[in-house]
Amino acid sequence: MPVQRLVTAALALLAALFAAAPAAAYIGPGAGFALMSSFLVLLATVALAFLSLLAWPVRTLWRVVRRKKPPKAHVKRLVFVGLDGQDPRLTERMMKEGKLPNFQRLHEQGSYRRIASTYPALSPVAWSTFATGANPGKHNIFDFLDRDLRSYLPKLSSAHIGRVERFLKLGKWKIPLQKPEIRMLRRSKPFWTVLGERNVWSTVLRVPITFPPDRFYGAQLAAMCVPDLVGSQGTFLLYTTRPAADAIREGGLRVPLSSNGSGPDHFDCVVEGPENSFLEGDPPPPLRAPMTVEVDRRAKTATVSVAAETVELQQGELSDWVRLEFRAAPGVKVHGLTRMMLTEAGKHTSLYLTAIHIDPEKPAMPISHPPYYAPYLSKRLGDFATLGLAEDTTALNEGVTDDATFLKQSYDIDREREEMFFAALERLRRGSLTCVFDATDRIQHMFWRYLEDEHPAAKGRKTGRQRRTIEEHYRHNDALVGRVMEKLADDDLLIVLSDHGFASFRRGVNLNRWLLDHGYLALREDADGTEEWLEGVDWTRTRAYALGLAGVFLNLSGREAGGIVEPGEEARALKGELIAAWDGLRDEERSAVGINAAFDAEDLYTGPYRGNAPDLIVGYNDGYRVSWDCAVGVVAGPVFSDNTKAWSGDHCVDPRLVPGIFFSSRPVDRGDDLSLLDMAPTALALFGIDKPDYMEGESVFDPAGFEGAAA
Amino acid sequence: MSLLNAALRAVFDVALGPFAALPPIVPVTIVALVSGIFALLVYRWTSNQAAIAAVKRRLFGHLLEVRLFNDDLRAVLAAQLRLLRENLTYLRLNLVPLLWMIVPFMLLIAQLQFHYGYDGLEVGERTLLVVDLAPAEPAAAGGDQTAPRPPVELEAPAGVAAETAGVWVPSLRQVVWRLRADEPGRHELVVRVDGGEFTKSLFVADPEGGASWVRRSPTRRRAAILDQLLYPAEPSLPRGGPIERIDVQYGTAAISFFGLFDVHWLIAFLILSLAFAFALRNRFGVTL
To answer: Which pLDDT value is given to residue A20?
Structure first.
């Protein structure tokens, strides 16, 4: 009986502590630390136990009074495992080949269906629909990006992060008198909030568009759109002695390394953190953490010292998490995490740092609900990635890291997620648990090129081993599903699903160029179209423009600051023209269809936020996607171009081409018409709760078929 | 051990001498600072810092778990059991540095105890001098109650008066004198037994103040290892000699804790050394 032994040992220890005279027990500060700390923890534990026992009836009563009566549930635990981007075609093929035995078992035990994604088939949109059971016109998330109607500049679609406006000035310091406003822009209640109102606990791990976190009866760790410490969606750093021949275009910063006269192998530099809002300036100066790099070129190693940490790096090996500490003001520190890799230590030295993640143990922003949930996970399980898009696809895209590093990073993050998931599952006795694993999406984005011999991003590359990467990852997911199934009881229900499937991204389409060529978009006389974020566009002569990954907007009078298209008939006619023009738009260079169709948002969406949607959603054909240039608002270049970046697979195509997967441990009571809209109503129905009016889907199970499993 | 004690006495007399006229909290604070730093260094070198950091993280994790799942009584109790288990692990990890610190801190505390742990006698104050004799040879002993008084004599120095003749307590084999302190200063009492001379120090405080916080010894004992360790203020009595110990009764001293309250010096030392160590732990890169 280990518990008995434990209690006996604890009691013996307590007796020894109390029996010892203070002077005899105290034999120096070391013993003092041990005895005091341990005694305090023991005291706190006993006090907590006592208080918990005392408060439990009161809390239970309060919950009953404050919230509605718990419903009659049909399951004890509902577990959603989200495998972002797992493709049904690949899944079905591999199941047929016997490579996914656990998925197959789940299919045989319960059911498997393809599940319709959203328009567009993008994770922020799709998972928001999953959570709310509503179309984007009701939850207000249409893409990663939205545009500022006054400046046409892009902004994050899911969260508004404001600035602090009120300060108390003390000499050179300015003390913030308020917290910055961080507001979620997703609308409609997610199902976990509705469950919580009826006393059903939910744990929600890394479901996209949960920043800032929801407040509900349960715990949540935020995901997609959580910024890094500098406020971006992920900015890696490359410290290098190489001359800045090519600027990093996407998601990274090049920082020159120079030896400053202290020897060719010693470098003093700084890591820049967020703006120091305690100091004056517009913008205020950044927080800085000094860093030294000592390189051993023969051994291909480096010793990096930053803050209180010293890390030994071997060339090509990614470090564990390294803590960064930025001093903002006396007694005020901002904490971050990064991982490092020495990418070269020969004639030149280059050191790669991932984006600086918010430290979950001491988060600088709200990344969890309750706020101590992230510190709790960190203390229980160790450091973990907190950035929304944590896998560094941009560094691989830019050639700063390689396939192996990216895979290691992705699998490490996946392992962190898995630990959190199983820890949460172990603690959950009744309620729901939802966890989204992102690695499937990220790995397919970056490794799809190896599946196709003629992919422009794979030309000249060896594709033997990498060709199996996606398949190996699906097997990895299969093993995860097997482990989850082992942990479930008869009255639990498991749903494994993805938000969309995947397609190839061989050719990019620059719709802004198309709009320019066809007279819908005009450039200023001093612009040549190479300007980013549409800065060269003459808005007085532009009727439509593309922004984001799937949307095209009309330059609508009364909505956009420089709008020239009148709402109503003119707008409808313009949309009709574009829909007709893009219906089956051909890429003549490849003799293929580039765009299947364009969809009128008025036909796709209903709800109070439909007006915030792009006017048209473009449904690209398999193999095509918005081009990299178009995505950052560049008008110049060809309409169709090869995609040679590592990011070679995508799902931002005609949503009919990329449904997701749906597996459940019980047979569904529906046909093949499953949609992400159905998931929230299903969750509520399983706990005996009627869906609210705004939810559009229907439960995929008939609760009558459950025999009082979890009453 | 005798040599070590002699050396330590000399070192501490010299080191603490300059503070003898100052309030004792001053030297205690300085020694606590040095001790705190020493303890941090020992802790850093001898403990498994990574394991201590990990167990502390887990401890706080379980504390947060109690808060997180406070509606679930079973989860709360399970978290508390884990807390207890981690706490024991934390204690186990502290054992190694603790063992390294035991000896130096025992030596230190023993020395400090004889500087700050006892009040000196005041002029006019009376005390007892107790001499414990070694057990008699079996042949000579005719039973405790009838044992003859051994020939034990006391020679009191000027400034100390023996108010009574030595009283023989046969059952304890003790000879007891009542002494009166007449003059301040450090005096040497001489006890004669079987032709041998044994001294015992006696400290009488100066009513005018002055250097009053100096070493004083309430007991002088035979040269057993533990006694030498715990009572190093005077050289040990010879092993196999006729006397086991000589005691002088001093009062227990309390020192002023920065004018806030009076406290035993050891408590002040405990508080201050812990406070210094906690305050300096980050500077020394130590996880406690």
So the answer is: 39
| Cα–Cα distance, A532 to A520 (Å, whole number) | 18
Same domain, B140 and B101: no
Residues from chain B contacting residue A48 (CB–CB below 8 Å): 63, 66, 76, 80
State the CB neighbour count (10 A cutoff) for residue A556: 20
Residues B169 and B216 in one domain: yes
Nearest-by-CA chain B residue for A53: B73
pLDDT in tens, A597-626: 999 999 999 999 999 999 999 999 999 999
Reported pTM = 0.83
A-chain CB neighbours of B36 within 8 Å are 29
Q: Which domain holds residue B227?
A: 126-251
CA distance B234 to B216: 9
Burial classification of residue B139, based on how many CB atoms lie within 10 Å of its CB (0-12 exposed, 13-18 middle, 19 or more buried): exposed
Q: Examine the pLDDT at A199 and tell me if it is beyond 60.
A: yes
The shortest C-alpha distance from B34 to chain A (Å) reads: 11
Residue B235 resides in a domain: yes
| Beta strands at A492-497 and A77-83: parallel, antiparallel or unpaired | parallel
> pLDDT, tens digit, for every residue of A416-443?
999 999 999 999 999 999 999 999 999 9
Q: Note the pLDDT tens digit of each residue in A472-496.
A: 999 999 999 999 999 999 999 999 9
- Of the CA atoms within 13 Å of residue B226, those in its CB half-sphere come to 0
pLDDT the model gives residue B210: 60
| pLDDT per residue as tens digits for the range B163-211 | 999 999 988 899 999 999 999 888 999 999 988 899 999 988 877 766 5
Q: What is the rounded distance in angstroms from the CA atom of residue A359 to the CA atom of residue A334?
A: 9
Task: Say if residues B239 and B256 touch (Cβ distance below 8 Å).
Answer: no
d(CA B127, CA B122): 10
**Total count of residues recorded for chain B:** 288
> What is the ipTM metric for this complex?
0.81
- Domain A77-141+186-226+365-502+660-711 is found in CATH 3.40.50.11590: no
List CB contacts (< 8 A) between B67 and chain A. 372
Residue A551 near residue A614 (C-beta atoms within 8 A): yes
- Please state, in angstroms and rounded to a whole number, the distance separating the CA atoms of residues A93 and A661: 13
Is residue B88 located within the same domain as residue B14? yes
Coil, helix or strand at residue A95: helix
Is the pLDDT at A109 greater than 60, yes or no?
A: yes
E strand or H helix that includes residue B207 = none
Q: Which of A321, A81, A86, A116 is nearest to A206 (CA)?
A: A81
